[in-house]
Amino acid sequence: MNRHLHFTAELLRNSVYAVLIVFATTFVLLLVGRNEIGEGVIALTYLVPVIWSGYRWGQGPGMSAALTAALSFDFLFIPPFYTFTVGRLEGWLVLAIFLAVAVLLIGRFEANLSQSREMTFMYELSSALANTRTQDAVAHTAARYIQRLFQAALVNVIYQPSVQSPRIVVSEPRDGKGEGKPDSLFPILNAWGLIGEIQIWRGEYGKLPAEDSQLLQNFTAQIAKALERTQPVENKEPANGLASKSPVN
Q1: CATH number of 182's domain
Q2: What does each C-alpha distance from 207 to 109, 175, 183 come to in angstroms?
Q3: Structural domain tally of the chain?
Q4: What average pLDDT values come out for the chain (249 residues) when binned by 10 residues?
Q5: Residues 12 and 91 in one domain
Q6: Domain that holds residue 166
Q7: The whole model's pTM is what?
């Protein structure tokens, strides 16, 4: 709950910042004078705070900036002034093009930011797994990073140290609760077969990856290698020979 409240407060704060930047841009445009510059130049000028907000803070603040800019543009710079009514076809076209370009750019920035974030998490997870010395540490590290990336309500990493050993379940957060069946389930496979699985319950704000997500495939491949590397020496031969015959259910 604390994590979700923090997330909401941060999103709201960044959206307010984005709106204030648009207001500052509007003030500058009014100082210059709407009779001195055309509607096309004003629209391009308003794209600056919209693009910056989307690039700096993401989709939510970017869309807040775009909506504020569109309303300010319509109210102050498209005749008739001081009303949200648009009296000319040209005004409608300029406003529609502005909104279309703003939404398109924000979506592009959001996609690039998401990809960059995933690559950063992949690098951090690989580095963290490289420093683990036990399978328990591997499972805890993997669960923590996956939960952070997808803002999941609960992540279970299940593995089996050997064929004779019981399954071990590692959860993140440790006091988290998942209702019903997991929303996503990904097997952990190595050269000998199924050695574990990752269960993810969707959080309030996070979006889970598709079942064929390349990112999760890379995650599970890294986790499988780390579990294999940290497997106790006395368990390696039995596990390697029987893993494919005794999959984790």
Answers
A1: 3.30.450.40
A2: 17, 21, 11
A3: 2
A4: 50 90 94 84 89 82 89 88 79 82 77 70 81 89 86 87 81 78 85 84 73 76 86 53 41
A5: yes
A6: 132-242
A7: 0.53
